[in-house]
Write the C-alpha coordinates for this entry.
Amino acid sequence: MATEWTLPGMGDSFKSGTVANVLVSVGDAIEEGQDILELEVDKGVLPVPATASGVVQEIHVKNGDKLEVGAKIFTVEAGGASQPAATPQAAASQAASSAAPAAASNGSAAADGASS
Protein backbone atom coordinates (compact mmCIF):
# COMPACT_ATOMS: atom_id res chain seq x y z
CA MET A 1 0.00 0.00 0.00
CA ALA A 2 1.39 3.41 -0.98
CA THR A 3 1.86 5.93 1.81
CA GLU A 4 2.45 9.68 1.61
CA TRP A 5 5.51 10.65 3.64
CA THR A 6 5.73 14.13 5.10
CA LEU A 7 8.66 16.11 6.44
CA PRO A 8 8.95 15.15 10.11
CA GLY A 9 9.56 17.63 12.90
CA MET A 10 13.11 17.26 14.15
CA GLY A 11 13.22 19.37 17.28
CA ASP A 12 11.53 22.46 18.69
CA SER A 13 13.71 24.94 16.81
CA PHE A 14 13.16 23.27 13.43
CA LYS A 15 10.02 24.43 11.60
CA SER A 16 11.15 24.74 7.97
CA GLY A 17 14.10 24.44 5.61
CA THR A 18 15.25 24.24 2.02
CA VAL A 19 15.91 20.95 0.23
CA ALA A 20 19.67 20.82 -0.29
CA ASN A 21 19.82 17.35 -1.84
CA VAL A 22 17.36 14.53 -2.55
CA LEU A 23 19.31 11.33 -1.82
CA VAL A 24 16.94 8.76 -3.36
CA SER A 25 15.30 8.16 -6.73
CA VAL A 26 11.99 6.68 -7.84
CA GLY A 27 12.23 2.89 -7.56
CA ASP A 28 14.86 2.92 -4.81
CA ALA A 29 14.33 0.50 -1.93
CA ILE A 30 14.94 2.36 1.32
CA GLU A 31 15.32 1.18 4.89
CA GLU A 32 14.04 2.82 8.05
CA GLY A 33 16.70 5.23 9.33
CA GLN A 34 18.36 5.66 5.91
CA ASP A 35 18.99 9.31 4.98
CA ILE A 36 16.53 10.23 2.21
CA LEU A 37 17.20 13.95 1.81
CA GLU A 38 19.31 16.77 3.17
CA LEU A 39 17.59 19.89 4.44
CA GLU A 40 19.32 23.23 4.82
CA VAL A 41 18.22 25.03 7.99
CA ASP A 42 19.52 28.05 9.92
CA LYS A 43 22.10 25.95 11.76
CA GLY A 44 23.45 23.98 8.76
CA VAL A 45 22.43 20.98 6.66
CA LEU A 46 20.48 18.21 8.37
CA PRO A 47 20.01 14.68 7.05
CA VAL A 48 16.37 13.56 7.07
CA PRO A 49 16.03 9.83 7.79
CA ALA A 50 13.31 7.51 6.47
CA THR A 51 10.66 6.78 9.07
CA ALA A 52 9.91 3.32 7.62
CA SER A 53 11.10 0.91 4.92
CA GLY A 54 9.65 0.78 1.43
CA VAL A 55 10.14 1.57 -2.25
CA VAL A 56 10.01 5.17 -3.51
CA GLN A 57 7.06 5.54 -5.90
CA GLU A 58 7.08 9.32 -6.36
CA ILE A 59 9.20 12.27 -5.23
CA HIS A 60 7.25 15.45 -4.49
CA VAL A 61 10.22 17.76 -3.79
CA LYS A 62 13.33 18.92 -5.61
CA ASN A 63 16.53 20.70 -4.68
CA GLY A 64 15.82 24.31 -3.69
CA ASP A 65 12.22 23.71 -2.55
CA LYS A 66 11.32 25.46 0.70
CA LEU A 67 9.48 23.07 3.03
CA GLU A 68 7.71 23.29 6.34
CA VAL A 69 7.20 20.44 8.80
CA GLY A 70 4.34 18.31 7.49
CA ALA A 71 4.99 19.02 3.78
CA LYS A 72 4.52 15.97 1.50
CA ILE A 73 7.94 14.73 0.35
CA PHE A 74 7.56 11.18 -1.02
CA THR A 75 5.04 8.50 -1.92
CA VAL A 76 6.39 5.15 -0.75
CA GLU A 77 5.14 1.60 -1.25
CA ALA A 78 5.37 0.16 2.26
CA GLY A 79 7.38 -2.98 2.84
CA GLY A 80 8.92 -3.03 -0.61
CA ALA A 81 12.46 -2.78 0.76
CA SER A 82 12.37 -6.47 1.67
CA GLN A 83 12.43 -7.33 -2.03
CA PRO A 84 15.95 -7.91 -3.35
CA ALA A 85 17.35 -4.87 -5.10
CA ALA A 86 19.31 -5.25 -8.33
CA THR A 87 23.03 -5.33 -7.65
CA PRO A 88 25.46 -3.30 -9.76
CA GLN A 89 27.02 -6.59 -10.94
CA ALA A 90 23.64 -7.92 -12.10
CA ALA A 91 22.88 -4.67 -13.93
CA ALA A 92 26.31 -4.70 -15.60
CA SER A 93 25.88 -8.34 -16.59
CA GLN A 94 22.45 -7.64 -18.06
CA ALA A 95 23.79 -4.62 -19.96
CA ALA A 96 26.71 -6.63 -21.32
CA SER A 97 24.49 -9.49 -22.48
CA SER A 98 22.10 -7.12 -24.27
CA ALA A 99 25.01 -5.23 -25.87
CA ALA A 100 26.69 -8.41 -27.18
CA PRO A 101 24.04 -9.22 -29.85
CA ALA A 102 24.11 -5.60 -31.04
CA ALA A 103 27.89 -5.68 -31.34
CA ALA A 104 27.75 -8.99 -33.19
CA SER A 105 25.19 -7.69 -35.67
CA ASN A 106 27.20 -4.50 -36.22
CA GLY A 107 30.34 -6.56 -36.78
CA SER A 108 28.65 -8.81 -39.33
CA ALA A 109 27.17 -5.82 -41.12
CA ALA A 110 30.60 -4.25 -41.33
CA ALA A 111 32.05 -7.51 -42.64
CA ASP A 112 29.31 -7.72 -45.27
CA GLY A 113 29.97 -4.13 -46.30
CA ALA A 114 33.71 -4.78 -46.60
CA SER A 115 33.23 -7.78 -48.90
CA SER A 116 30.86 -5.98 -51.29
